[in-house]
Design a protein that fits this description.
Helix content is 35%, strand content 26%. It has 413 residues and is an alpha/beta fold. The strands form 6 sheets. Strands 3-6-2-1-9-13-14-12 form an 8-stranded mixed sheet, sandwiched between helices. A 4-stranded antiparallel sheet has the order 15-20-22-21, sandwiched between helices. The protein contains 13 helices and 22 strands.
């Protein structure tokens, strides 16, 4: 059975409103799916919620909660509804075009997750039902972003439909996972900021994972880790120019003996937290970050200052989505450890340079820092990995920072 998995994002499923829908984009998606079916493939389709619906639902929950933090379980109940709208509308469109199709929620398909509401991890996918439907020549339209745990709905985090699609490709042993999005592929930088950014015909799992975790919104970072683990071939393509080739994501190719930089990325959805004048003794950092772990808060960059008079300070970055919850935790930590104060700063941005060539070539970091210095941009935090260098800067300086680094490394050529 030749199977292909196609994933369509929110821009592909966008409608003007539920009371006055514009079905043209959804019909275009349906025609693309049918054309793939006519090429001899069994097709499983994963879709996201229409447009910005998930963001709107999340905002509604925050407003309704007032001064409280919405229950994670109830957020999952709410946010999962957007994908159910998409799968139903797309299946209706497929029926209208004469196709045999059926829609399934994550629960109906059999996507089983852990209990981490809003950030659930997939434990297994029961494929018996979807395999039977594919054998019966159904186009199966699956709600992305969601699963179930002990009869409760769970969601897989921001961009979780990518994870649904990649995981489904792995368990079905499909030939490819096609990710249709509102860009033509993966670029050396955001084309909206750098007009000379170049589309990459191919990129390794590792590089794409680093780019995604550093702010590139083409794919969810967790989905790329899953793809690398199970060797899932991915083709990122434009949903607006459906027949145009995009970017292939796969195993690392043999690289030439030269500095190879794939791209520069940024993330504005970051906040820096500093807890000042902590006691300088063993176990303090473990207590601070253990308290955050208990609340399922992910930490990115961390800096600890040098000890002075038996005190030091720790700064770290988190997603702005977790800022309110992080501050609640840190205020309790401050009181428990008798720290001086907790400072929050959400006017920052993280900028990152990614490329496998960093492993074997010196001078990449110095060149990046020089590009920022040329524009008089101050660096507040730095972190590195084998193939990535990240800096925290002021958000207002982001655009010129990206442009300067892109130009310094000749990424447009």
């Amino acid at each position: 059975m030749k199977v292909i998995v196609q994933k369509f994002g929110g821009s592909s499923m966008d409608i003007d409103s539920l009371t006055n829908p514009n079905p043209q984009r959804i019909k275009k998606v349906a025609r693309k799916i049918i054309s793939t079916r006519k090429k001899g493939y069994k097709v499983a389709v994963v879709v996201s919620a229409p447009g910005k619906m998930t963001d709107h639902l999340y905002s509604a929950a925050l407003v309704t909660a007032g001064n409280s933090i919405p229950s994670s379980r109830e957020l999952d109940m709410l946010l999962s509804t957007g994908e159910q709208i998409s799968i139903s509308l797309l299946t209706v469109a497929l029926h209208d075009l004469g196709a045999k199709a059926i829609s399934l929620t994550g629960h109906q398909l059999g996507i089983v997750t852990d209990r981490s509401h809003t950030k659930a991890k997939i434990k297994k996918i029961n494929t018996e039902r979807i395999r039977k439907l594919l054998d019966e020549d159904y186009i199966v339209v699956v709600a992305g972003f969601q699963g179930e745990s002990k009869k409760d709905i769970t969601t897989l985090g921001r961009g979780g439909s990518d994870l649904t699609a990649v995981a489904l490709t792995a368990v079905l042993k499909a030939e490819c996972c096609e990710i249709f999005t509102d860009v033509d592929g993966v670029f050396t930088a955001d084309p909206r900021i750098v007009p000379g950014a170049k589309k990459l015909p191919r990129i390794s799992y590792e590089e794409m994972l680093e780019m995604a975790s550093s702010g590139a919104q083409v794919m969810q970072a967790r989905s790329l880790g899953f793809a690398q683990k199970y060797n899932v071939p991915i083709h990122v393509r434009s949903s607006l120019k459906i027949n145009r080739p995009g970017t292939l994501i796969g195993g690392e190719k043999k690289m030439l003996e030269k500095v190879v930089i794939s791209g520069v990325t940024y993330d504005k959805n970051q906040a820096k937290i500093s807890i000042v004048d902590l006691p300088d003794r063993p176990g303090v950092a473990a207590y601070v970050f253990g308290a955050l772990t208990e609340k399922n808060i992910n930490i990115d960059m961390i800096i600890q200052s040098a000890s002075k008079n038996g005190k030091n300070s720790i700064s770290f970055t988190v997603s702005c989505d977790d800022l309110k919850k992080t501050l609640e935790v840190m205020r309790k930590v401050k009181q428990r450890l008798k720290a001086k104060q907790v400072i929050a700063d959400d006017k920052i941005a993280k900028i990152s340079l990614v490329g496998v060539g960093m492993r074997t070539h010196a001078g990449v970091a110095a060149k990046m820092f020089k590009a920022l210095a040329d524009k008089k941009i101050n660096i507040e935090m730095i972190s590195t990995s084998e193939i990535k260098i990240s800096c925290v800067i002021r958000e207002r300086e982001l655009k010129k920072a990206v442009q300067s680094i892109h130009r310094k490394f000749n990424l447009g050529k």
